[in-house]
Amino acid sequence: MERFTGIIGILLILGIAFLFSNNKRRIDRRLVLSGLVLQIGIALLVLKVPAFNQFFQGMGRAMQKLESFAREGVAFVYGGLAAIDANGNAVNYGIAHVFVFAFNITATVTLLCVLVAILYHLRVMQFIVSMVARVMHVVMRVSGAEALSNAASAFVGQVEAQVMIRAYLPTMTASELLASMSGSLACISGSILVVYANMGVRADHLIAASLMAAPGALVISKIVFPETEASPTMGTVKLDVKSGYTNLVDAITHGAADGFKISMNMIAMLIAFIALIAMVNWGLHHISPGLSLDTIFGTLFYPMAWAMGIPTADVHNAATLLGQKLTINEFVAFRSLTNGTVPIITQKGLTVVSIAICGFANFSSVGMQIGGIGSIAPERRTDLAKLGLKALLCGTLASYLSACIAGILQ
């Protein structure tokens, strides 16, 4: 019966979304049901169909291979510095199998951003996004703008996805804007996905999480904020985004610069948040010995972790990871998961948790998104600020919904 506990989670998630709906009578039931069917279909393909599962596992191995290519560049830059290997010995950083988070992550993210820029310049990325968007548009009957945005969010960063629909942002309805923001928070970019895969998380689980979150975010956002206005892009899916780069070399240089900026932002956030966690835990321990943020998260998120169908042995630790992801960020949650600080011992628990915490939905990302999209469409900044917390709710619930479905199939 534990397999079907996730059904309780699905009902709970949809119930929460319905509770926060601003117009319960206008909820499009067909859109909700078709979105759920699409999520289930993606989960079945990635997790249960051998040919697709092997394909996505192969993609995971390819992602890990990219990390070895990135090392070639970073070893040249940092080679000669001393690093500590797995045995505790000081060795040259340039040799294989030595990992320093700041150096390795910078290299991997920078290389992936360069590859994305190349694909963008060659219009390959636009083609992939438009194909995925057409499927979502046909199945769910959502507008072209929100289909394109959510499809893009499964491949690129949360602000980059909005760049692809820059021309539509000024005229998008409030419901479309929320759907777009929610998708960007629920999904995860390809460059960050590779980082987590190289940290030890199964790549097929990460890919499933990001792909499932695209329709999932539309399902939740359209319950929370049903469409009541006429959308200018209803019935059309048109993505005509030009490269913006002068040539291939220009794409590579811009991609490298963007990758380095993203890496520095990641490193800064991790330093700040992990230091703050240590400071808060120190204070909590002095209030009550043994009290920490992990114990608080484990208690607050326990009901949701249980409802997802996570095995009893892992529920408390899974709840802790859910809390870390939402209130701090997903980097900290994945770090706790992969380094054993907050271990998950069952395979089903690992699958469900990996999908549940795979996404950008956290408080700091909301601020980044409002600032990023606001710079693209300044006239919508007020609307973005009003919808920020709703988008956080929708993005979080979308990831949880994907996790519940994956748990049922395990």
Automatic annotation (TrEMBL):
It is found in: Cell membrane. InterPro entries: C_nuclsd_transpt, CNT_C_dom, CNT_N_dom, Gate_dom. Residues 103-199 form the Nucleoside transporter/FeoB GTPase Gate domain. Keywords: Cell membrane, Membrane, Transmembrane, Transmembrane helix. Residues 205-407 form the Concentrative nucleoside transporter C-terminal domain. The chain crosses the membrane at residues 6-22, 31-51, 95-120, 177-199, 206-225, 262-284, 387-409. Residues 8-81 form the Concentrative nucleoside transporter N-terminal domain. It is a multi-pass membrane protein. Belongs to the concentrative nucleoside transporter (CNT) (TC 2.A.41) family. This is Nucleoside transporter. It comes from Nemorincola caseinilytica.
